[in-house]
Amino acid sequence: MTPRLPTHTEPDRLKATISQVRHFNGLQPEVQDAIAAAAAPRHFATGQVIYLEGEPAEFVYILERGWVKATRMSRDGREQAMLFLRPVEIFGDIAVFTGTTYPGTTTALEAVDTWVVPSATLMTLVKQHPELALAVIRKLGERVLHYIELVEDLSLRSVEARLANTLLQHAEETDGRLVVPRRAWTTFDEMAVRLGTVRDVLSRALKTLEAEGLLKVDKQGIVLCDTKGLAERGIL
Amino acid sequence: MTHEPQHPPTDKNLHKAILTLFAGDRRTASASLRVGVLNGIVHLAGVVTSPEAHIAAAELAGSVPGVRGVVNRIEAPGAPRPARTVNLDLHDR
Q1: Which domains, from first to last, does chain A contain?
Q2: Distance from A163 to chain B by nearest Cα, in Å?
Q3: Are B17 and B46 in contact (CB under 8 A)?
Q4: What residue segments make up the domains of chain B, in order of their start?
Q5: Per-residue pLDDT tens over the stretch B13-38
Q6: ipTM confidence
Q7: Which chain A residues touch B41 with a CB distance below 8 Å?
Q8: Residues of A in contact with B32 (CB under 8 A)
């Protein structure tokens, strides 16, 4: 899919988006301008594949709107979620800087707007601007920490503990309550992929935590009733 | 006489072989299909207009020696969502 050219109203929107990317918001205006000059908009409908694992890494993506899921098929043929991304965020960068193909498949969970920067252009900019190189290092360092946590989660923690941690990370305050909101894509299957388990096990884990009075499932989503208790459950 | 050990084809070579097959088959030649290969598992995306083309693309990819499995994410009318697990080692059976 070829990115289309930006319209005359889009450069300001693009610059505003770049300035919201963590670690990139401190870049000098001329560096942000250089990234903006190379970027083109690309829209994805719900469920559409953004890139495939093992596909040549031609672009880095800046996520402006909508949620994105990154998964990877293990060597034994099971799908595992690696990341759930919300705006504003950069993705597709690991493959570009390691010179490999994309390590995972990303899919739009809802209508998604991105800006794509050609990999070769980003590499050139990194060589020209040391502060951009530092921002990229910080970004990649954060990703490494995320994957260390994921490995720890999958190898050492029970499904109940993983569920408790995930809920605590994604809760939002609504009407004085902490709620993990129900979204169109937060199906049991998606949650199971995220936690590295299957639907039945996830269902049992939810019921266990609900029976312990730690959460309650209602129309709005999952209400966290006892965050201290959930945090303790998250260690086990 | 000594025999060289048989190495499995690289993901890069599999990728190239699949694109060549797609370009040479009338059911897939005109479709804009995307292919990724990682650890011998093929991942397909893109859009086709018929269920037949959807199935044909997966069959063509799976027929390449060295392909261990195919995850078919190609959009087509009535196409199912890909399963969360993939049948591996297609050529061992």
Answers
A1: 10-155 (2.60.120.10), 158-233 (1.10.10.10)
A2: 19
A3: no
A4: 33-92
A5: 999 999 999 999 999 998 989 999 99
A6: 0.88
A7: 54, 73, 77
A8: 1
